[in-house]
Known about the structure:
The protein has helices at about 5-25, 30-50, 55-75, 80-100, 105-115, 125-155, 155-165, 170-185. With about 210 residues, the chain is mainly α. Helix 6 (about 125-155) packs antiparallel against helix 8.
Amino acid sequence: MLGGRRGAIDATLPPVAFAAGWLLGDESLWAGVLAAVVTASGVALWRLRRGDRPRSVLIGLLAVCVAALIALRTGRATDFFLLQLLSNAASALAWAVSVVLRWPLLGVVVGAALGQRGRWRRDPALLRAYGRGSWIWTATYVLRLAVFVPLYLGGQVVALVVARVALTWPLVAAALAVSWVVVRRSLPAGHPGLRHPVAPVAPQPGPT
């Protein structure tokens, strides 16, 4: 959610390189894998030189390497995207479960960014608003799966890359905008906003 355009670049360049290598190599899986790993390594070095956290950089590089190993193991070019499918399925499940458990992930992310820890959960209005906003993010992962799975099953390597690019930064930007509107409209009139959770007032004991 918070990776911005830099995160979108990390997510899209290796798959684009994979497809380009695969096509230029006359549908050679090794050519596609080599192009993807070299590109991911270049992106990782560039990010490290810019001072990004080594852990996040290495996780991104590791994901590409694992995707490449899966494709080489199965011998199918589309399996380079299998890790992505599983990741989106797991994300959709995690976001949906978080709402059911009344720990909506949108609230967790925004609350952490605002330094509120769990204080937002004591505000019933914010809890409800973040829950509704979290369903928007759940829908983005479900949408990706609805697009990716048929392409994966059909062996459409190039179409998978195009769909991944189209459903990365543009979809995240749309989800940010829509979930913001949903959260704001879910708050009652007079609510002080996301930065100021309102704890319910405890009932006062009656006269004895």
